[in-house]
Amino acid sequence: MSGLCMAIALKRAGRHDFVVLEKSAGLGGTWWDNRYPGAHVDVPAPLYCYSFAPNPRWRERFAAAGEIQAYMAHCAERYGLQPHLHFGRAITSAQFDEDQGLWRIDTDAGQTLHARHFVCSTGPLSVPRWPQIPGIESFAGARLHTARWDASVPIAGRRVAVIGTGSTAAQLVPELARSAVRLHVFQRTANWVLPRMDRRYGAADRLLARWPPYAALVRAGWNAVLELGRRGFDEGTFMRRTLLQQAEAHLRRGITNEALRARLRPPYPLGCKRIIYSNHYYPTLAQPQVELVTEGITHITPQGIVTADGQERAIDVLVCATGFDVQHAVSVPIRGRGGRWLAEAWRDGPQAHLGLSVAGFPNLFMMLGPNTATGHTSTLLYIEPGVRWVLRAMQEVERRGQRWLDLKPAVMQAFNDGLQGRLQGSVWSQCRSWYRADNGRNIAIWPGSTREYRRAVAAQNYAEFCFGGATVA
Ligand code: NAP
Question: 50, 8 in Cβ contact below 8 A?
């Protein structure tokens, strides 16, 4: 979504000299990768589209992966992006050449590109993480990761295990339970689950959505509601008390068995990990063919999964809904000024300035970079200001007759000190999650409101950058 947004912004600004490299065979990014059964966005679709391209075709409030892909294809078509998109091209390395003020980008097709600017839109959740469980390689049945779903593996009538109970698993489990003969859900940590305010959009909704003032009103309404929900992450607020009550009532409604309910009560504060929105997850766990396993996994055999109590559950299909490797937030090897690796600059965890620029890496622009994730609203509200920022920065480099701009290290340091200070006492520091690196540093969350982020990004201060490689004397 972010790469596409950047490409559209370039087109709309009349800049046509760019390419979009995509390692997958088609458009969609996370929605291309995550095609497991039940994959849906968990923010209302009117907020999960670009502000300048409302989508009157949504069929349901929480759109399915396929619908989002169709929307993206529509945008690519509408803005004439086809000639710019190169699929099946993975970047193998990207290196900044200080003399030329150019990024040298190599791809796995043996191609080398030279670019003035490099917008890295690989997303923090793109490298699937397999669990490190002894014996996993020896499993003789089908082994799937949700982010690399293989739809040719049959589920109907088979014994299936799902490891993990995050947002992905909560969407997948109800779907698998429809056809699997037996479904074991291995939970390491129980999560908070809130009701999802589902609604199908009928013909009347879709007709109304074509009227721009109505579309804008619905979008603004959802934005306001979700922003209000942001208060639920702060201790002692009315919103937090409301969410806690909702969560408890939801659990009681979905699970009548007290013992099972007790195993589903999260051991960490609400909001510390991503909140799950689902109306089907709890009722599915109460079905007779579904078993919630909370005993720890010790190892995997060719036939099944063994837990700490010595029990082995025989299975045909092993599904890992175990999330992503975020420690190396960018999967591309990148070298900046002086040949410095980004991985080296980030050895204590990824960090940037407003998630957009990293000191020592001129003209490298991150999309959804470190600390731009939220637990309460649409990521697109963070992408669009970022894209505008990048476009302005590119124009500023040209206006000054320079080749590059580079963030001053002290600016990045001060920004991150402030950010980490705010995060330290927050709800996000009170458990283990993909928001945090192994050393405990929060590398993902923006602790403020969306408006605060938008304002910070809009208030561009070029004194925080140095410029170099003058093209004119
Ligand atoms: P995740 O939130 O990182 O959850 C991974 C799950 O796997 C956790 O329950 C974790 O347990 C478990 N796990 C990991 N390693 C394990 C091991 N060795 N043994 C047992 N359990 C293990 O990953 P995710 O569910 O894929 O979601 C990641 C993010 O993607 C979400 O937070 C969200 O931002 C995004 N997402 C969005 C949507 C949407 O918009 N609809 C849908 C899906 C995902 P612990 O909790 O104990 O670590």
Answer: yes
